[in-house]
Automatic annotation (TrEMBL):
<feature type="transmembrane region" description="Helical">
    <location>
        <begin position="393"/>
        <end position="416"/>
    </location>
</feature>
<dbReference type="GO" id="GO:0016020">
    <property type="term" value="C:membrane"/>
</dbReference>
<dbReference type="Pfam" id="PF07690">
    <property type="entry name" value="MFS_1"/>
</dbReference>
<feature type="domain" description="Major facilitator superfamily (MFS) profile">
    <location>
        <begin position="1"/>
        <end position="460"/>
    </location>
</feature>
<dbReference type="GO" id="GO:0022857">
    <property type="term" value="F:transmembrane transporter activity"/>
</dbReference>
<keyword id="KW-1133">Transmembrane helix</keyword>
<feature type="transmembrane region" description="Helical">
    <location>
        <begin position="328"/>
        <end position="346"/>
    </location>
</feature>
<feature type="transmembrane region" description="Helical">
    <location>
        <begin position="264"/>
        <end position="283"/>
    </location>
</feature>
<feature type="transmembrane region" description="Helical">
    <location>
        <begin position="226"/>
        <end position="243"/>
    </location>
</feature>
<keyword id="KW-0813">Transport</keyword>
<dbReference type="InterPro" id="IPR020846">
    <property type="entry name" value="MFS_dom"/>
</dbReference>
<feature type="transmembrane region" description="Helical">
    <location>
        <begin position="436"/>
        <end position="458"/>
    </location>
</feature>
<feature type="transmembrane region" description="Helical">
    <location>
        <begin position="295"/>
        <end position="316"/>
    </location>
</feature>
<feature type="transmembrane region" description="Helical">
    <location>
        <begin position="74"/>
        <end position="99"/>
    </location>
</feature>
<feature type="region of interest" description="Disordered">
    <location>
        <begin position="491"/>
        <end position="537"/>
    </location>
</feature>
<feature type="transmembrane region" description="Helical">
    <location>
        <begin position="105"/>
        <end position="125"/>
    </location>
</feature>
<keyword id="KW-0812">Transmembrane</keyword>
């Protein structure tokens, strides 16, 4: 493993931690509530305390990484996440648990966008970046289901506290590795200027929206506990956009939204995560309520999903550079619709092997074909100086989509199974409401499909499969070079004739800019060297 690969190991592995933590806690809600004597209204905050601070601080954390260094923000986030995970594990009361979880979410918010930025800034557009993001996504897909498996095993053996202790240990280990392998960020020539007013309005605005989405089902969408917060949040978000259009050093330069591929990717990330969380949550509910499975058996039911994620995402990491991304995204959304349709036919007499098992296989292929290309598309056209911001906005889309999806699906399921307060009949009878939730997931998948079809630009493969004897097109000039061997000969001639041909050949090859080395450097010499190697291949 080369040094650059070593440097990217902690950011990629970090993707696992927040998702494992979040998914495992969702399974551990009942034992946590029983041990710490949570009231009915307090139970809601076992999940929401973490989710709200995590989503609310993503934008600020990502931009601070751009300004002060992604390595610094990444390592701070790891330390903060680990510290408060440890504190959570020793909680003795609901208030201690809730506050510690909220502070832990702040640490997670500092790590995810900076991890994406470290990958994007260390790898130029091309196959290596695609592979790195595929592995990053694989750890994400693995994390959500691994959390369920971990929680099932720990709750049944040594207790829910070890969910957080294991997270803390893993984070401290990654922190130590990061200190040695992630290179230092060169200091900026100018002292970074922070848009404090923009940071204030954006953080509180997004936090308020997440609060409204997360608590609306429990408290009521129009109740005095939710609607004032939502109104203030919208005012803050509108104010934030106005501020960003006026200040000289904005937290979120509005030009970023003019990149069509990025804007569409954020919207697709929102829809994709809403549907993903819906499938995981309602599959879990189906196993426990309809099949009446124990927590450990439910965890084992997800095992195929977890293991297959590693295989599928690994394969995609090698094949995505050779394929256009838009058709894959469209195919992925359709496959995920098939998954929801299959689960809608489940009842208490349905064999796991007949429907849930194959549905999980189809689902992980659908997630890989949609979510990975969406993530790659989001960062592809952004400048290096904006990669932290891009990662933050992309992940904000994911974090807003997850509670939004669950909230909407819960409204549908609860309104079918019981009354608006959540009173339900229980057991297999709940499947009627679950079925309607799965129908809604099909609608979400179709919405994502048509959104990508209509708005997302058609793209070319990141790296076409070029073999000896293939033609290589050179853009933007109209120079045509017949074969790879010919290309090498022309390069040799250009080296002796002077810089004129170097300038022509140093343009774009096969429609993509030739990278000037992973960490910058002389673009002409890197381009000439790369093309010369092709000629001698």
């Amino acid at each position: 493993m080369n040094r650059e690969s070593q440097a990217l190991t902690p950011p990629i592995q970090l993707r696992l931690l927040p998702l494992v933590n979040g998914a495992s806690v969702s399974v551990a809600i009942l034992p946590i509530a029983q041990d710490l004597n949570f009231t009915v209204t307090e139970v809601l905050w076992i999940l929401n305390a973490y989710t709200i601070t995590f989503a609310g601080l993503l934008l600020l954390s990502g931009r601070l990484g751009d300004l002060f260094g992604h390595r610094r923000m990444f390592m701070f986030g790891l330390f903060w996440f680990a510290l408060w995970a440890l504190v959570v594990s020793f909680s003795t009361s609901p208030i201690m648990f809730i506050l510690s979880r909220a502070l832990q979410g702040m640490g997670a918010a500092s790590t995810i966008p900076t991890a994406m930025a470290l990958i994007a800034t260390n790898y130029p557009v091309g196959p290596e970046r695609t592979k790195a993001f595929s592995i990053f996504g694989a750890f994400g897909g693995l994390g959500a289901v691994t959390g369920i498996l971990l929680a099932g095993g720990l709750i049944a053996s040594i207790g829910w506290q070890w969910i957080f202790r294991i997270s803390a240990i893993a984070a401290f280990i990654l922190l130590a590795i990061s200190f040695f392998v992630i290179p230092l960020t060169p200091p900026k020539a100018e002292k970074p200027k922070v848009d404090f007013l923009g940071a204030f309005t954006a953080t509180l605005g997004v936090t308020g929206i997440v609060y409204y989405i997360s608590t609306g089902v429990e408290y009521g969408w129009g109740s005095a506990k939710t609607i004032p917060v939502f109104v203030v949040a919208i005012i803050l978000v509108v104010s934030f956009v106005f501020i960003e259009s006026r200040v000289h050093h904005p937290l979120m330069p509005l030009r970023i939204w003019k990149v069509k591929s990025f804007t569409t990717s954020v919207a697709l990330a929102f829809v994709s995560m809403a549907k993903f969380q819906g499938v995981i949550y309602y599959a879990n509910m189906t196993f426990q309520e309809v099949y009446q499975w124990t927590a450990i058996k439910t965890a084992l039911g997800f095992l195929v999903h977890s293991l297959l994620a590693v295989v599928v995402f690994g394969i995609l990491g090698r094949t995505l550079p050779r394929l256009p991304l838009k058709p894959l995204i469209l195919t992925g959304f359709l496959l995920r619709c098939v998954t929801a349709l299959m689960f809608s036919f489940v009842n208490e007499n349905t064999s796991y092997w007949a429907l849930p098992f194959p549905a999980f296989i189809i689902h992980i292929f659908g997630v890989g074909l949609s979510l990975l290309p969406i993530q790659i598309t989001a960062v592809r056209d952004a400048e290096n100086k904006d990669q932290g911001l891009v990662g933050a906005l992309y992940n904000t889309g994911l974090q807003l989509g997850a509670p939004f999806g669950i909230a909407i699906l819960n409204v549908i399921a609860i309104s079918t199974n019981g009354n608006s307060t959540g009173a339900v009949r229980g057991g297999p009878a709940l499947m009627k409401g679950f079925r309607n939730a799965f129908y809604a997931m099909i609608a979400m998948g179709l919405f994502g499909f048509f959104l990508a079809l209509v708005i997302l630009p058609w793209d070319k493969p990141v790296r076409p499969a070029v073999k000896k004897g293939d033609k290589v097109e050179v853009e933007p000039s109209e120079l045509e070079i017949g074969t790879i061997d010919e290309l090498g000969r022309v390069m040799d001639e250009s080296g002796s004739a002077g810089g004129e041909k170097e300038e022509v050949l140093g343009s774009e090859v096969v429609g993509e800019p030739v990278a000037a080395g992973r960490r910058g450097g002389d673009s002409d010499s890197s381009t000439i060297g790369s093309l010369d190697k092709l000629g001698k291949a």
